[in-house]
Amino acid sequence: MRTARRSPHGTRCENRGSPAHLQESGLAVFGVDASPAMIESARHAYPGLRFDVGSMAALDIVDGALGGVLSRWSVIHTPPRELPAVLAEFHRVLAPGGHLLIGFSAADDPSHPTQAFDHTVAPAYRWWPGHLSALLRESGLVEKARMARRPEPGERRQFQEIHLLARKSAADRGNAS
Length: 177
Hints:
Elements (H helix, E strand, L loop, with lengths): L6 E4 L7 H7 L5 E4 L2 H10 L4 E4 L12 E7 L10 H11 E12 L8 E4 L6 E4 L1 H10 L2 E9 L11 E8 L9
Parallel strand pairs: 1-2, 1-4, 2-3, 4-5
Antiparallel strand pairs: 5-9, 6-7, 8-9
């Protein structure tokens, strides 16, 4: 995809308005999801946007092509042993100076960096924010900001929501190894 501006990339096709909002902001947007059903749902909800079936650990994108990656709740179904490969792939596709915004549910206890929980679709995992931040550093991404949202009483899941903003160094022109 050729655009005048670097394109952000969504790694989970969701129907929360994020893709359309980003496109309306003038960014070239596309999404990737492992689930063909989610891809069809996203294509129906956003017919003017591109959505492809794919894996977060093996994106069909050239090295350094993206200015940003948006990964909102994309990693909750990633088994803990596989998360480093996903983060390394995000690092690979980001341009030098590119950003990753990753959202996830937080684990309750730092002594348990990941906690499994039952999810409607498939087993899911919550991550201790400091642990996920360390995994980002190991993949070559540096946390720049963190936002936490506590659940409201009565919400279905009483998990704290975390968003980490990480950046690939502007001097980093290689892959994470």
